[in-house]
Every structure is written in C-alpha cells, then in structure tokens.
Design a protein that fits this description.
The structure holds 3 protein chains of 3 kinds. Chain A is an alpha+beta fold. Helices cover 22% and strands 36% of the residues of chain A. In chain A, the strands form 3 sheets. In chain A, strands 3-10-8-5 form a 4-stranded antiparallel beta sheet, covered by helices on one side. In chain A, strands 7-6-4-9 form a 4-stranded antiparallel beta sheet, with no helix packed on it. In chain A, strands 1-2 form a two-stranded antiparallel sheet. Chain B contains 5 helices and 19 strands. Chain B has helices spanning 34-43, 167-170, 196-204, 275-279, 294-322; strands at residues 2-6, 12-14, 52-55, 60-64, 68-81, 84-86, 90-94, 99-115, 149-150, 162-164, 180-187, 207-209, 217-221, 236-237, 242-244, 252-254, 261-262, 266-270, 286-291. In chain B, helix 1 (34-43) runs parallel beside helix 5 (294-322). Chain C has 2 domains: 3-80, Gyrase A, domain 2, CATH 3.30.1360.40; 90-219, Cyclophilin. Chain C is 20% helix and 33% strand. Chain C has helices at residues 27-40, 68-80, 105-112, 116-124, and strands at 8-12, 16-20, 46-51, 55-60, 90-98, 128-133, 140-143, 158-161, 165-169, 172-175, 180-182, 185-189, 210-219. In chain C, a hairpin with a 3-residue loop joins strand 1 and strand 2 (16-20). Classes of the chains: A alpha+beta, B alpha+beta, C alpha+beta. Chains B and C meet through strand 11, strand 14, strand 17, strand 18 and helix 5 of B and strand 1, strand 2, strand 3 and strand 4 of C. Strand 7 (100-105) of chain A pairs antiparallel with strand 10 (162-164) of chain B.
Amino acid sequence: MTIDLPTIERLAGMLERSGVAAIEIEEAGQSLKLVMDRPIAAAPARAASASAVDDASVTAKADIAGHFLAAHPWRAKPFVEPGQRIEAGAIIGLVKVGLIYAPVVAPAAGIVDTVIAETGALVGYGSPVARIRPVAA
Amino acid sequence: MIEILSVTGPASVQDLGRFDQVRFGVGTSGAMDDVALRAGNILLGNDENAAGIEIPMTPFKLRFGRDTAFALTGADVEAEIAGRTIPPWWRTQARAGDVLTLKAMPRGARSYLTVSGGIDVPIVLGSRSTQFRGEFGGLHGRPLQVGDILPCASWSVTIRDLGIEPAEITLARSSAAADETTVRVVIAGEYDGFDAATQQLFWQSSWKITPQSNRYGYRLQGPEVKPTVPIEKRSHGIVPGVIQIPPNGQPIIQMRDAQTSGGYPKIATVISADLWRVGQARLGSRLRFEQTSYADALAAETEKSAYLDRIRASVRLVEECLT
Amino acid sequence: MTASDRPRISLLGTSALLFEAPGAFDLPHQRRIWSLAATASKWPGIREAIPGITNLMLTFETPPRELDSLIAALNAGWDEADGLMIGGREIRLPVIYGGEIGLCLQDVADYSGLSVDDVVSIHAAPLYTVFALGSHPGYCYLGGMDPRITMPRRQTPLQRSAGGSVSIGGSQTGVSASPGPSGWHAIGHTTWTFFDPSWQTPAALAPGDTIRFEIERVIR
C-alpha cells in the first residue's frame, strides 16, 4: 500500500467515526501520523449555534483534507473577514496539502458571518470552513 | 490568443532557453526564474519548456481572446481578472474577452504568465525564447508592445482554481536581513588572483544591485574587489551565473541574455540551482555570496528538482482526488 | 615541466567547464583547440564544445558526478591533439575607419603612440583568421592582430555599441554582428550580415575562415 491522499482521507474518516485521537502508520520509506484536531472537533457546535440563529446561512466546506490557511503565506490580510460582502465562488481560504494550496470557495453570494476554521488547523473533506449569510444578488 | 493592452518595462516571451547554439555565439536567453516558469507549466499540465510571458514590471494588462486556462507564478503580483483577485502562484480560468491586470509587484522581480498549451510563437534555433541581441525568437525578437497579439496553443480544457506553494517558501534559505538574498557560488578560474583580504571582502560584503541590472547582467555595487595584479584574459566561453570583475572592481553577474564569452577575470559562478533567486532579486536590494562545493551545488540542483517533482505529483494527486 | 606548461582547467558552476591551453595566442595552438573541440563534442554528457581564444568551454547536458575523469580526458586529449587544418573561405570586408562608430580610433592611436593612419594600416594589413565565434550571435574573434595596436579593455563596459563595429580588446580584434554592450574599443565599422537564424548554419563565418579588412575610408 502507498499512502496517498484518498487513503489519508479514508483514515481520517475512520478516526472521526471511531473517536480515536491519533493514528500512526509506517510503510516502506513513508510514515504518517494523523492527529484529530481539537478546535475542529469543537467547530461543529459553533457552526450549529450559528445556524440556529440564521437558518438561511450557508456553509463553505473544504473539499480536500489538509491544513487551513485563512491568508496566503505572502499576504498579511486574510482572504475574507466577518461582515465582508462576497460573490459566489470567492476564495474564503486555502487548504494546504503538501505543496498544494486548494481554494475553499463561497457556495453563494452573501455576507461572511464567521470563519470557523483557524489557520493551521487540520480540516477534512466536508469540514465547514465559513458561514455565509446569503444576499440576493 | 492574447492581446497586450498595457506593458511597462521589457516583457518578453521566454521558455527555458536555447542551450545548444553557443558555438555560433548564441546565448541561452530563457526565463530568468526557470523554477517559476516550470511550476506554472506544471500547474497547467504543459510541457515544462512551454513558453510563457516574463513580466518584469507593472502595470501590465492583457485580454484573452478565448477561454484559456492560465497560471501566474514568480514574483508576488496583485493581479485581477474579471473583478476576481488572483492569489500568488495560482492557476485559474479566463473567459473569452476577460482582461487580466497585474497592478503591483510587492515582492520579487519577475512574474510569469503561462497559458494552457503555451505561447505558440515559432521555434527558432530550438527555442521560443526571445534573443534580444540577435533580434529573433519570442515575438519578432523584441520586447512586447501594446497591441501585440500572441498566439496560444491552448486546448479548451476547463480547470478548477488551484495554487502551489511558492518556491521561495519551500526552498527558503536563511537570510541575514530582509531585502537581502543569499546565493551559493562555486569559485571560478581567477579566484586565486585575488589576495586573501580581497577574497574576504567579496564574501563578507552585502552587494547592492544597481539600476543598471537587467536580463544581460546584474551590476553590483560595493567595496572595490580587485585582483592582486590586473588580469586580462583571452576571450573564452562563459555561462549565466558567472561573476566577472571588470577593472573597476565592481562585480557583474552574467544573466540569461549575457554574452557567450568574455575576458574579465571570474571570481565565482552562481550555481544554477540558485540563479532564479538572483532573477527575483529586486533592483536596489542586496545580494550576498556563500561559497559552496561542486558536490553541494549538484545536491542543490537535486533539491530544486525534488521541489518540482513534488509539485508535479501533488497536482496529479489533487486532480485525482477532486475529479 | 612547470605548471605554466600545463593546461588550466576551471569550473563555471555546474553547467560548464573551461579548458585553457598553455602557450601563445597563435594559429598552431588554436588549431589544436579546434581539434580538441571536435573530439570532446562527441563525449557522453557534453552538450557543446565551444572554442575560445586558445581555450575551450565544455557545456554539460547533465553535470558529471565527478570531474576527475573528464579532466584527465581533456589533458590527454590536449597532449594528443594534432593541429586541425581547416580550409576556410577568405572574406573581404570593406571598413570605414573612425567616424561616429569608430570613436576610439584616436584613443588607440594615443595609447599606442602611433598616428591614426598608422593604426589603420597596421589593422588592415594582416590576413586574419577566425579563431572562434562567441560573445553574441555571429560574432567572430580574429587572430593575427599586430601587437603594436593592443589596447586594454574598458574599465567599465559600454551598455551599447553599434552593430558592425570593428573593435580592439586587449591583443584581439573583431567585428560585432549586432548592437549591444561591449568592453572593447571601436575603431571603425562595416556593413555585412554575419548572422541569420533562418540559414542552415546561422553564422556566416566559422573558425578557420579568413578575413581581410579593406580600407574603404578613414574619417579623422
């Protein structure tokens, strides 16, 4: 077996479901340590309370597992800040996987309510990254 | 096809260079930051040698004539297309008629625009790079002008936005000061023609990059570094990276458009693994030289290739994960 | 045998290596360089073997892991190299000496202590041999200049000198094929096409060809 991204995602899913805090595996020439990130575990609760306030809000989700970056490493300013008006497809942040920076994009136009994920935190496939209150275009 | 709407400074079409015509006096040309050009091409699934546009100054503006996937790598630029901001080292999709604007360059010295399939100018003597001195290659052998139309070999693929980590971050080397770039050099033929104190001066100085620095060469300013006795060499071949010491004692680093031969004494050569760092060093900023061995220079080359290999593998992997 | 009898071999980073032959700047030595270039260009891993003035640059396709065997091969190759006789063409080049392009004619006269007319006749007298191509596309380095009109290269190279400039740098002379930076002193100019990338061989002249300068005019 080679440790590829789909494998890592599968393992991350297993960790999440099983409630195990960490897993470490070693293959020839490769080693992998997956640790469940606490702030992320706590995040859904915050997200849930936000949605209780505003049922119409939408969630921007990561579509790949990796570390969240609210700003590009070359930029001091984050991609979005709460209260900011954004268009559908706007970049909310980046998920860093190896040398790749995959964008997390806004599913709809609106006002940024909360950026849930913190810079450096591990996010998984489908992890909520930000909540957006849609505004009719 | 691409139409140039606004250009500042000598922007040009470059691939990796023209490497086997030196015996006719033809220099290599090619991207000053070869790592950035390769990375852009990797992002787009192009051949790494596909030609792109090297943009040394902003503002720069162009219009895409048709739907085209493109990437921006190299210097950090504040770029916008159709109202969207483009992050550094990024690929995205342009729609026919979209205008791309590079507004400012807060970091680095050269931005690279690569397009899906590459800029399709004719191959001249084995390369698409602009040979300024010979006035061939690139687009009519000259810098780009407003109104120029550049053909693209793009196929109509739609790609999703994706970024990669800039080489400057992955291949970072500890630098003494901000606005100072340290590059590794291997000593050259006339190093021993300088006495020990002068050699120390060369290593310990923080060299200022003068405004007379360009694709031909970087002219540096600092303490006078002169050989013990004046050295006048018979003309011999030189390559980009060679640091010559003309009689005024102020070093000149030969760059991509340098002459293929010279006769000034050579104190050292910037290793090819670090030449892109010189290409991204800004006028007015400073350079420092660090001595390295031939073996370590080869290891640095391997490290640079490994970075590009990782990008290639990662892009492929993410492509598979997300489709 | 002293060290100065042996070739000097030095590195140009990891992309090339420079071989400098011992001995005089003359045709017999240059013929051995041409011979060594012909041999070395066929060695594995060598992209090009580029003759300079009694020296040879080898560029690498891929840099060799270790250099000892390459250095040994170059030394042995030099010792074995017979002069390669190239039966080149003879070209006649009309030159306008002095004037706006040949601005340094007077400087060379002053430096050498000769009159302008003497410098011109001394420069135009020999049958020059194209020793090597280099610098910029189509540029030829010529051997055979009279040492009386030697003039050291510039303290600081010029950012731009004209195409077709006939110039002197140290004990060498040559004609530039296109405008560009130069550390040499221009004493005249010629109109001739030295390079065209659409030609089968892009450079008009090759090592071994000979050139005779014809004095078309002297502008004082």
